[in-house]
Automatic annotation (TrEMBL), chain A:
Family, similarity comment: Belongs to the binding-protein-dependent transport system permease family. CysTW subfamily.
Alphabetical UniProt keywords: Amino-acid transport, Cell membrane, Membrane, Transmembrane, Transmembrane helix, Transport
Boundaries of every ABC transmembrane type-1 domain copy: 13-205
Protein name (database record): D-methionine transport system permease protein MetI
Any one GO cellular component localisation term in the record: plasma membrane
Protein role: Part of the binding-protein-dependent transport system for D-methionine and the toxic methionine analog alpha-methyl-methionine. Probably responsible for the translocation of the substrate across the membrane.
Organism superkingdom: Bacteria
Keyword set includes Membrane: yes
UniProt-listed Gene3D superfamilies: MetI-like (1.10.3720.10)
Transmembrane segments: 16-40, 52-76, 82-105, 145-167, 187-210
GO biological process: D-methionine transmembrane transport
Subcellular locations according to the entry: Cell membrane
UniProt keyword DNA-binding present: no
UniProtKB/TrEMBL annotation, chain B:
Chain ranges of the ABC transporter domain: 2-241
Coiled-coil portions: none
InterPro entries noted in UniProt: AAA+_ATPase (IPR003593), ABC_MetN_proteobac (IPR012692), ABC_transporter-like_ATP-bd (IPR003439), ABC_transporter-like_CS (IPR017871), ACT-like_dom_sf (IPR045865), MetN_ABC (IPR041701), MetN_ABC_transporter-like (IPR050086), NIL_domain (IPR018449)
GO cellular component: Gram-negative-bacterium-type cell wall
Taxonomic path: Bacteria, Pseudomonadati, Bacteroidota, Sphingobacteriia, Sphingobacteriales
Originating organism: Olivibacter domesticus
Pfam families: ABC_tran, NIL
Domain of life: Bacteria
Protein name: D-methionine transport system ATP-binding protein
GO molecular function: ABC-type D-methionine transporter activity; ATP binding; ATP hydrolysis activity
Keywords, sorted A to Z: Amino-acid transport, ATP-binding, Cell inner membrane, Cell membrane, Membrane, Nucleotide-binding, Translocase, Transport
Keyword Transmembrane: no
Length: 218, 344
């Protein structure tokens, strides 16, 4: 393998990491509040509101059902508006974040549903306001589960980021496809695969470790 | 201090009306320990949740010191709730916080300064006897310790009222006693009014001054505990009292038990129920002298409520057959209920 190839793989790894973690971060910034909103407006919860809950749920489902490769193309005008260009890593981050957000929202909602209802009741009985319940009860109590969801989200994003190649964002997936699959270079393809597998393993391991550290239930 | 007026709560399940509470009227005086007893599904959980409006009553008023809570805005209600601590059957401690963090929680809600929180929390942990556990997480505590933390947490906002939702139902008898003692101590020392719901008459007997019996969402009897015990009007109340006066017959006896006496089995096994109507004469020793019989107490549960002797005794009588039956009639005369179990 040539030096140039090595550099390319290195750059590809870096691009994949950037795309995964940065879009994961923005995906959470968007998805977490939506997930909390979905939970809090549910029937029987503190801010129960059927209209809001249904509207948000429909939006979340709509975005989740768009195939990611189509989302990238469909969002080009918006992407251009936000980052000024429709090609490169920056351009891939926009659809990746938007694609991850509804996924994160549902994950977060599910994590919150796992919290025993008695805890919310106890907080209300102590005179906690809705925002205090979210910050002091829901999020801290669901933290171990949310961290697990974060590793699942990041791993999904590793896969999604391979499609970033469609807008010239590069990344490992793109190299594997271009040089390995199209160019019949089995070595490159296998190295890319090993790098991706390693990345996924590292994310899963770190996620499990951190989740265990913050979990005081046992 | 707490007054419930014509309180009703209706739930809808698939368009079917369920009357969880109907027309409840209740007054809890300041400084008293008020028990609400009922079977599961009687509406007692809903009732206690109506006091701090965790459940909003369908109609009726909830008055705390004369203020109608149902009319308050959400933020005013949040403030009032701080005057009412609450503890639960399953403790409801935050698993993500240490013991200290849990007790500090209500103080954080009102943004109390750090030093105030530190001082107050340590004081409360001292009160409930858990100072040495302050950095432990709830997962490492026993049930009784968890409830003590929950009590400390409920007291952190200096409430006037403590609401206890089946606070001892998940605990073993010895722990139950110690938690009840703590509640009584808090009631006396801090002059905090305690409202508790339970399905165990033992709990009512142990610490309550007044009691209300609830069934099918209605209060069927209320009054001072000693009055209710010595003079229960409804059958349900009597059942609750009896269940707290329950004695078991050991397997050994049950195996040997026969319904008619014979050569080898001449001893009569009976349960004597003293329900407060019986006089306070020493009927037992009188019977022994009158009819020249022997007795053995196998199991007994007796209590003095007000002036009345209440309880049940499982006894074995030995003597001439006709003398024993005369003795049983004598007991009945003295208003002691006689339940013949058999011969051993």
């Amino acid at each position: 393998m040539s030096d140039a190839m090595l550099w390319m793989l290195l750059r590809g790894t870096w691009e994949t990491i950037v795309m995964t973690f940065v879009s994961g971060f923005f995906g959470f910034c968007l998805g977490l509040p939506v997930g909390v909103l979905l939970f809090m407006t549910r029937d029987g919860q503190m801010l129960a509101n059927k209209t809001v809950n249904r509207t948000v749920a429909v939006l979340v489902n709509a975005f989740r059902s768009v195939p990611f490769i189509i989302l990238i193309v469909w969002m080009i005008p918006f992407t251009r508006l936000v980052v000024g260009t429709s090609i490169g890593v920056g351009a891939a981050l926009v659809p990746l974040s938007i694609g991850a957000a509804p996924f994160v929202a549902r994950m977060v909602e599910n994590c919150l549903l796992e919290i025993p209802h008695g805890l919310i009741e106890a907080a209300r009985a102590m005179g906690a306001k809705p925002l205090q319940v979210v910050n002091k009860v829901l999020l801290p109590e669901a933290l171990p589960a949310i961290i697990n969801s974060a590793s699942i989200t990041l791993i999904t994003l590793v896969g999604y980021s391979a499609m970033g190649g469609a807008v010239g964002a590069g990344g490992l997936g793109h190299i594997g496809y271009q040089y390995g699959y199209v160019g019949y270079d089995a070595l490159i393809m296998n190295v890319v695969l090993i790098l991706l597998v390693a990345l996924v393993f590292i994310i899963q391991f770190l996620g499990d470790y951190i989740s265990k550290q913050v979990d005081h239930r046992k | 201090m707490i007054e419930l007026k014509n309180l009703s709560k209706v739930f809808y399940k698939k368009n079917i009306e369920i009357h969880a509470l109907s027309d409840i009227n209740l007054t809890v005086a300041e400084g008293c320990v008020y028990g609400i007893i009922g079977s599961s599904g009687a509406g007692k959980s809903t009732l206690i949740r109506c006091i701090n409006l965790l459940e909003r009553p369908t109609s009726g008023e909830v008055l705390l010191n004369g203020v109608n809570l149902t009319l308050l805005t959400p933020s005013a209600l949040a403030k009032v709730r701080r005057q009412m601590g609450m503890i639960f059957q399953h403790f409801n401690l935050l698993s993500s916080r240490t013991v200290f963090g849990n007790v500090a929680f209500p103080l954080e809600l009102i943004n109390a300064p750090k030093q105030t929180i530190q001082k107050k929390v340590l004081e409360l942990l001292e009160l409930v006897g858990l100072s040495n556990k302050k950095d432990d997480y709830p997962a490492n505590l026993s049930g009784g310790q968890k409830q003590r933390v929950a009590i400390a947490r409920a007291l952190a906002s200096d409430p006037e009222v403590l609401l206890c939702d089946e606070a001892t139902s998940a605990l073993d008898p010895a722990t139950t006693r110690s938690i009840l003692e703590l509640l009584k101590d808090i009631n006396k020392r801090l002059n905090i009014t305690v409202v508790l719901i339970t399905h165990e008459m033992e709990v009512v007997k142990a610490i309550c001054d007044e009691v209300a019996v609830i069934a099918d969402g209605k209060i069927i009897e209320q009054g001072e505990v000693s009055d209710i015990f010595s003079n229960a009007k409804s059958e349900l109340t009597q059942q609750f009292i009896n269940s707290s006066m329950h004695v078991d017959i050991a397997h050994d006896y049950l195996n040997r038990l026969v319904q008619a006496s014979d050569e080898t089995k001449k001893d009569l096994l009976v349960k004597l129920h003293f329900d407060g109507a019986s006089t306070n004469e020493p009927v037992l020793s009188a019977a022994v002298k009158l009819f020249n019989i022997d007795y053995e107490i196998i199991n007994a549960k007796m209590d003095t409520l007000g002036k009345a002797q209440v309880g049940v005794m499982l006894m074995k009588f030995n003597g001439e057959v006709n003398k024993i039956s005369e003795a049983m009639d004598y007991f009945k005369d003295k208003k002691v209920e006689v339940e013949i179990i058999g011969y051993v």
